[in-house]
């Protein structure tokens, strides 16, 4: 005789004993199930039955392992997944003329490109990266789409043997800091902006109606933190060369990474064509603040 296997699910095994009801009449509709242990019919309240089934499924699903996530990027970071080099592009045509130019509308114009001096500064930066072994095992180059920064990225790639597909243009997070009403003024007047930065990272330059943003240190800090969040999520154990059209993006970024009070970001200023390896454990010796007290553990809120 052929034996058949009973594939019926035994629901009573999922129901705790306290959920069994007596066979007395009840106003709630009931389902009759025969207990395999007592062979006595019990009336089980359907609502209790569904509750028991839900609980059993929840317990079973809780045993499934969930993949971990890196979470939101915080400044200063506990650790970095990648190696980073910060590069300020060489001098631009506008800087040669001694004029402030931060309007993003003009960032791809020829006048926002590298000057002759800027090209030489950038070539020097490219060879410095090569001597540091930055791209010996390959690297990703992330320049601002601003003309001078992208030109600098192409020079860096050429000198270090990096193909163009490893140049990733960044369209907004690395824009030059918008200086509002200082747009078109002489470069020397930017010292007034830095004087305000030293008072509070929340102070914005005066606004202007030509489309130039007026960004505080805290505004730029948000942008560069978003950039780092993308890079730390998209890559792992890679080398990233960040190329900025100005110094402020880099000084504010590095201040956040090392825990420097953002009001003092100017003390980390980058010269045109300067290269710096990111070391989150310290700031460059030649850029150490005069005071030994410089840490900020919750930027941009530093007291």
From TrEMBL:
Protein name: Phosphoglycerate mutase
InterPro entries registered for this protein in UniProt: His_Pase_superF_clade-1, His_PPase_superfam
């Amino acid at each position: 005789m052929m034996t058949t296997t009973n594939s019926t699910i035994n629901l009573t095994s999922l129901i705790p004993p306290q959920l069994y009801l007596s066979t007395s009449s009840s106003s709630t509709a009931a389902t009759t199930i025969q207990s395999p242990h007592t062979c006595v019919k019990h009336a089980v309240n359907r609502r209790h039955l569904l509750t028991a089934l839900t609980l059993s499924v929840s317990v079973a699903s809780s045993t499934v392992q969930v993949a971990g996530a890196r979470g939101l990027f915080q400044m200063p970071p506990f650790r970095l997944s990648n190696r980073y080099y910060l590069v300020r592009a060489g001098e631009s045509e506008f800087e040669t003329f001694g004029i402030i130019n931060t309007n993003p509308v003009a960032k791809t114009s020829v006048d926002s490109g590298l000057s002759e001096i800027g090209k030489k500064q950038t070539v020097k930066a490219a060879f410095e990266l090569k001597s540091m072994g930055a791209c010996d095992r390959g690297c990703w180059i992330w320049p601002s789409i601003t003309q001078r920064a992208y030109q600098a990225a192409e020079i860096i790639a050429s000198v270090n043997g990096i193909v163009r597909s490893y140049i990733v243009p960044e369209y907004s997070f690395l824009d030059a800091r918008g200086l509002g009403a200082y747009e078109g003024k002489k470069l020397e007047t930017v010292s007034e902006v830095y004087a305000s930065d030293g008072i509070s990272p929340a102070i914005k330059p005066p606004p202007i109606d030509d489309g130039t943003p007026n960004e505080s240190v805290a505004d730029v800090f948000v942008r560069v933190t978003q950039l780092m969040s993308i890079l730390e999520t998209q890559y792992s154990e890679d080398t990233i060369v960040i190329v900025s059209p100005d110094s402020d993006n880099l000084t504010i970024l590095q201040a956040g990474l090392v825990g420097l009070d953002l009001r003092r970001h100017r003390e980390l200023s980058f010269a045109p064509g300067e290269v710096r390896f990111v070391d989150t454990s310290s700031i460059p010796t030649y850029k150490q603040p005069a005071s030994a007290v410089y840490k900020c553990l919750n930027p941009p809120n530093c007291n």
